[in-house]
Amino acid sequence: MGSELAHQIGRCIATGHYAPGSLIEDESALVSRYGVSRTVVRDAVKVLVGKGLLEVRRGIGTRVKPREQWALFDLDVLAWQLSAQADPTMLLQLMEIRQLFEPQAAAWAAKRATASDIAEILSALEAMSADVANMELFLKADARFHRAVLRAAHNEYLFALSGIIYSSLLSIIRLHNPDVGNNRRIVSFHRDVHDAIAAGNEVDASLKMAFLIEDASSRIKASTALAS
Predict the structure, then answer these.
(1) d(CA 24, CA 119)
(2) How many CA atoms lie within 13 A of 64 on its CB side?
(3) β 61-64/54-57 pair status
(4) Cα-atom radius of gyration of the chain, to the nearest Å?
(5) Is the CB of residue 108 less than 8 Å from the CB of residue 154?
(6) For residue range 153-165, what is the model confidence (pLDDT) as tens digits?
(7) Are 164 and 77 in contact (CB under 8 A)?
(8) What is the pLDDT of residues 45-80, one digit of tens each?
(9) Strand partners for 63
(10) Residues 6 or more apart from 103 whose CB is under 8 A from it?
(11) 16: how many CB neighbours lie within 10 A of its CB?
(12) pLDDT tens figures, 8-41
């Protein structure tokens, strides 16, 4: 129950219902509003304090912390932010982070990947190709491709960032209408990354991944311009 309530309050914070710097309701009010016990409320607050969203000050109350103090890479925090209408600014920031680490991950994958790693990358690529007309399945296969590349880099800390990839892909899908032709184009870019990794070409793998991410960023910018 505490985790469920944490998700509800976390979404309210991440989507702006509770603004940074504002106080949320006191314990009694939260008990009444959500119909839960004080223990559940306290557990939920502890979860959100741990994720950097809240701070509890005796005599003042429970305050929403500034966004820069949130655990922004936390999967729950990412999901809560994405539960609101897709935010192009946030998405472009996620893409900038991806541009920092994914090209290097592809280069390391080209250097370190095992036959099993390459087979997993290829399997995800083939799933993308088969699911170009189904956006939900295409998204899952796309995320699996990038996770497989991170795994092939054989760096556990790098793999821990894979939640950023899924979050950004989910937002991209929400910003764009399904387009089978464009999805086939995206598959071809992913195939270039696979081929470079399979060939052990570190430089080409990095360049192909950088191009892939830049293409996605350009589509986000174009979509935002059209909507404004």
Answers:
(1) 49
(2) 19
(3) antiparallel
(4) 20
(5) yes
(6) 999 998 888 887 8
(7) no
(8) 999 999 999 999 988 999 999 999 999 888 888 888
(9) 23, 55
(10) 205, 206, 207, 209, 210, 213
(11) 11
(12) 999 999 888 899 999 999 999 999 999 999 999 9
